[in-house]
Amino acid sequence: MSKPVLIIVHQEHSSPGRVGQVLAKLGYPLDIRRPRFGDPLPETMDDHAGAVIFGGPQSANDTDDFLKGETDFIGVPLREKKPFLGVCLGAQMMARHLGARVWPHPQGHAEVGYYPIRATEAGLSVCPEWPDYVYQWHREGFDLPAGGELLAEGDGAFSVQAFRYGTGYAIQFHPEVTHAMMYRWLVRGAHRMTLPGAKQRAEHIADRAVHDLASRQWLAAFIDHWIGRKPANQRRKRLPEGRLPRGARGKAAPINDP
Question: Whole domain around residue 93: which residue ranges?
């Protein structure tokens, strides 16, 4: 049996979503911990195949002890050359751990909804196909750390969207969000849609129908590469946006989203 992947989340009922689903399908157990509620973090990665820190309502600039502990912990997988992934808040923690600035937009702009990104040459070497639009839910961004390799950039308020540093990866967007998670966020985080630049509820729903397939296919290819199972160029290419898999025309494609 594979070693478990350490999953770090920040709210009582937070879920690793599709990242957890992909890892489970690949045979990796999930060791879910919530340091905010007292769960300890390991001193080494000897018992884990990798680690993921997910998002949350906090800021990487907050002074809570659990946030400082998580930020410091990122040095463990990086030093031991184990796969690490930071998602949104986790990405901002990684940038901060590496000495980069984490900042709110000076005009208060937020990215809440689907926004375009563009992969760099380095990003295409990781995955040859990236989604054109990704799901975002943040109002802070970060600079590219010294020694970091830019993988994807945005044209809007926050230009650094993904980077790599050694065996660590940081992504500002949320490929883990399932259909059910998106609807929960739209209800519980409705106030975020009043921020400058945020998309409205109907736009989230309409854009997901167009862009979600590409995001799902990218995530499967990326996790295979990240965990070290397969080079990215061995993954099948994604379908054009909106196209159903072969044999699925005329009926709804199966949905495995809780």
Answer: 5-231
Using DSSP's 3-state secondary structure scheme, residue 20 falls into helix
Residues in the chain: 258
Cβ contacts of 167 within 8 Å, gap of 6 or more: 77, 78, 81, 82, 83, 84
pLDDT in tens, 184-228: 999 999 999 999 999 999 999 999 999 999 999 999 999 999 999
Spell out the residues 6+ positions from residue 180 whose beta carbon is closer than 8 angstroms to its own. 257, 258
pTM of the model: 0.89
Asked if residue 250 belongs to a domain, the reply is: no
User: Three-state DSSP class for 200?
Assistant: coil
| Within-domain flag for 239 | no
Phi, psi of 136 (to 5 degrees): -120, 155
Burial class (CB in 10 A: 0-12, 13-18, 19+), 194: exposed
Tokens, residue 217 = 């296919």
Q: Which two tokens stand for residue 131?
A: 């989604």
Q: How far apart are CA 128 and CA 112, in angstroms?
A: 26
Q: Is residue 238 part of a domain?
A: no
Domain count along the chain: 1
pLDDT digits (tens, 9 = 90+) for 84-122: 999 999 999 999 999 999 999 999 999 999 999 999 999
CA atoms within 13 A on the CB side of 247: 1
